[in-house]
Amino acid sequence: MDFILRLASDEESHHESVQQLFQQEVEHMAAEGFSQNQAAIFQRKRAEFLIREYSDFDYDPFVPFLALTNFDRYVSRYTLPDRTPDDYLELFAITCVVISWRIRSENFRLGEYLELNNINHPKLPEIQKMETLINSGLDWRPRSITALCFLSFFISLLNINEQHSEQDLKYKALKIVFRMHRDIKYTQFRPSIIAASAVLAISKTMGRYSDFKEAIVSSQFVNRVMGDLKKCMRDLMVTLITDSLTANAGILSPRASLSPPPGHDHEDTSDSSDPTDDDSSDPTDDDASDDDSTDDDGSSYSTGVGFFTLEMLWDFLLFVT
């Protein structure tokens, strides 16, 4: 769990202040209308599959997260043709992953990455050309402001004294953010709204919802967009309820591997602690024990995020409607 918790703090370190994050976040969103574009919806689903396939998700789940974010930012402004050839979309997705790896690891080597993923080396010039195209389309700012950047800020509003409880809350909020990221409809919301929704949902399980909502309302950064927050919360509850009723968890469950793949030494390797040493901190243990639940009549369902009960989700949906 320590590994996945570092993802948010890594991102925060790249920005000077919370105020700057709120001021600049809109510039890092997908363009308006992207979430309703049918061609984009189809392309994004295919791109998400390719990005995960070429990201080595088990080692660093932030890589596909950032790659898909940059895919959204670029494609929403520079629309790909409706009949984009599969090989072009694959090249585009691979390049988004390469850009993300360059951000995440100073030791990333493109040649080693291509070999590791069985990608033909003749693609090297094509990838380099595509890198220039994508970075140019992103105004050479591929280090996106995401919902992860805001988690610590919103969690701090809960005034949690115990470090373990704070880490547990952040971990659960991260899982919700990863789940939301898979659905194109959430690209219409500011990253801060997505983060606030995730923490707000978790605060409900802690019995702290009223306190946190009051803190958000009084926040100078969020109170002016409370309507967006309420809509995002409703959408999130519907998403989690749908996951439960269809028994399709669909949650991205990050797991850190013991050793990085060749050429992917992460810049956080200065931390000598191994996140897999402590069984209690393995995200997959949580998934195995929590994601599947049983209701009163004995039928099983999966919430997708195991710390919610179906009854709690329905209650919360009515509460925010």
TrEMBL record:
Query: Which residue range or ranges hold the Cyclin N-terminal domain?
Result: 18-141
Q: Which Gene3D superfamilies match?
A: Cyclin-like
Q: Do the record's keywords include Nucleus?
A: no
Q: Which GO terms describe its biological process?
A: cell division
Name the keywords, alphabetized: Cell cycle, Cell division, Cyclin
UniProt domain Cyclin C-terminal: residue ranges: 146-240
Q: Where in the sequence does UniProt note compositional bias of the Acidic residues kind?
A: 270-298
Q: Is Iron-sulfur a UniProt keyword of this protein? A: no
Region of interest (Disordered), ranges: 252-300
Record-linked PANTHER family: CYCLINS
What protein name applies here?
Uncharacterized protein
Organism, scientific name: Ilex paraguariensis (yerba mate)
